[in-house]
Amino acid sequence: MRILGLDYGDKTIGVALSDELGWTAQGLEVIRRKNEHQDFDLGRLQELVAEYGVEEIVVGLPKNMNGTIGPRAEKCMEFAEEIRQILQVPVRLWDERLTTVSAQRTLLEADVSRKKRKLVVDKIAAAFILQNYLDSK
């Protein structure tokens, strides 16, 4: 059973995929959003779900540090509901606090250039979200 992990942001959506056994997460790609008001075409997510036989999707939920839900988290919840209805796949929300910070730190430790970090940080954050979810199961 493959699970897709998503790090939903204002400009990009990081995508990660689990292995077939659901043990490990790997960063897959970054989907660019058109703009904040006109979202991207869900077609790419539909393609990924079909291509990899995805049976579940995990969307990072950026809670505030005190555990409350803010405006950014509300947007992620709306996005999760939208893809649940359109893709007809179970969608789970997963606390993503500090995943982007962890992804940035990992890339810095690996001595990845600033330019390359900017290109991959979202898919690494998606992999962290998905891996944390897999580890909890």
From TrEMBL:
SMART domains: YqgFc (SM00732). GO terms for biological process: rRNA 5'-end processing. CDD domains: YqgF. It is an enzyme of class 3 (hydrolase). It is found in: Cytoplasm. GO terms for molecular function: hydrolase activity, acting on ester bonds; nuclease activity. It holds the Pfam family RuvX. The keyword Cytoplasm applies. The keyword Manganese does not apply. Belongs to the YqgF HJR family. PANTHER family: POLYNUCLEOTIDYL TRANSFERASE, RIBONUCLEASE H-LIKE SUPERFAMILY PROTEIN (PTHR33317). This is Putative pre-16S rRNA nuclease. It comes from Paenibacillus swuensis.
